[in-house]
Hints:
Mean pLDDT: 93
Number of domains: 1
Largest sheet: none
Shape: globular
Order of helices and strands: HHHHHHHH
Strand content: under 5%
Amino acid sequence: MFSMTFSIKSKHLFLVLFIFISFLDVLGLLMKVSLLELIAKPLIILSLMAIYISSVKKKNYWFLTALFFSFLGDVFLLDKNNMFLLGIAAFLITQLIYIKIIIGHLEKSSLVNKMTAILPFAVFFMVLIYILIENLDGYLWPVVIYGLTISMFGVVSLLNYITKKTTSTLLLLLGALLFIASDSMIALNKFYEPQEFYSVMIMITYILAQYFICRYMISRSTTI
Length: 224
């Protein structure tokens, strides 16, 4: 009983910590206090790891590995000029692991369901590349490869929801859509038309995306 009470308290503590750190990071962006972002941003994923670890008995180490590469991506992208490709590479690995995890959760589906899941993300990918292509230069192939990967993350998340309409699969789908929105804004800001509001929106959508994906993984652990 004591251990269960302690576990519940620790989950709540880590959730409060995650929210507080996320708030500090967004505040740093709003107020243009780079030191605050430098301190808070790497702690976002670390606090999310703590939420996950304290919430499940049987840990999915693939998921923890994906979060580790997200942590690396966050650190690299603190220097978007010199470390951009390293950040892209780290998040590419994150996305590939997420895809692997979700494919393992998929149930059998019809061709119609598969095409329904593929179509919106195929259109999204083609439109995004069409918008960006003139300014990509040496970044063309990294952006194309990353764009295809995150689109596939969207496809498998949507297919998972189509075949199992539950709260947890909806959270995963929302997480995937927010992750795609966040990464799309990064691309638009860097390669198309920079906007001041992008930096804040990128982090808000990213933080929510990672949290929703984490909630899905916690739900999977407690229902298996």
